[in-house]
Please model this.
Amino acid sequence: MPLPPSLRVAQRSALTDFYFHSWRLLPANILWAVVTLAIVGLAILVPPLIVLAPLAALPVAGIFRIATRIVRGESVSFWDGLSAWQSEMRPALALGTGLLGATIVLGFNFVSGILSDSLAGWAFATLAFWGLVGTWLFTWVAWPILLDPERARQPVRDRLRLAALLLIAHPARVGGLGLVLAVLLVVSTVAVVALVSVSVSFSALVAARYVLPAADRLESGLAQQTDRSL
Model:
């Protein structure tokens, strides 16, 4: 299979995609912002409602469903994103809960280790930090593979396993993607309007353009190795 695109090419392609599909992606991004802000507001007013936080994964799944359909060259509409809320509800909630849980636990361990005055505590914080990095990178690999329309019939376990294998096989490649998107989202957080309307959808497009061809190539190579072993 052809080599996957470079990160620069993926970003250029994502810009083109966003230009032609902005009227689909902008509402999806705004819907994500509304749901997320509503959950945060409810959690501030009634702290036990923080348990609703994984529901923010549903609009994320909708954004990635639109982005992956665009990358795959399929017909796409805003309603494809909403349909993903139902068709991929369980895997999206499971992935969102897992990522959120890992981030909370690792973040707590990192802060407690940093505040410790012992060498063991700092070592613990270092391990937690790299765990946070791994969680961040897996996020951007897992979502496009999970919502890939060409893999919709595959078991969820197989899709997430492929995402993990891709991260292990190409840590530098995925690391570059994670760094670029981290900078983009941090800058967008300062410019709140960009985060609410554009940034998450554009990041999803970049990830889909960058990850899916690499996943296809890795999956093909694994299949060939399996055939040779048989």
